[in-house]
Automatic annotation (TrEMBL):
InterPro entries: Ig-like_dom, Ig-like_dom_sf, Ig-like_fold, SIGLEC. Residues 1-25 form the signal peptide. Residues 33-135 form the Ig-like domain. It is found in: Membrane. It comes from Ilyodon furcidens (goldbreast splitfin). Keywords: Membrane, Signal, Transmembrane, Transmembrane helix. This is Ig-like domain-containing protein. The lineage of its organism: Eukaryota, Metazoa, Chordata, Craniata, Vertebrata.
Amino acid sequence: MAALSENVLTVNMLLSVFFLPGIYANNCGRRTPLVFIKTPKPTAALSGSCLNVPCSFTAAPGRTVFDSSKETRGAWIRDGNAIFDINNGVKTNLVEITGNLSQKNCSSLFSDINTSQAGKYFLRIENSDYKTTDCSDPLQITVE
């Protein structure tokens, strides 16, 4: 009986090592994402052109709730860059969120895109105490 229990434990550990990490295959770590974006997949652009990306998002309640009556700020974060606070709004030289974030519209314009801008982009939303990043399904941009 002890050998059977040991075998079950071994199988359970192996399954955890090989299959469990798949549920954490995104960039969320062990956190549950609270915002989910919807963008065209795949998204490609020609080098030197502008890329208009239609985008919308849903906001799930967490410790706080998204409140569309409050000021909403957002930013696109390139893979590998950590951001936890948005101080200067949503416009940069490379990307401008053109949609109304309060209405959950994150449509964006990437200007003069080049190959160094290819990669994964994560949407960060800040709405009063509601602060979260879409880590589960990033915008993937390829540049040719």
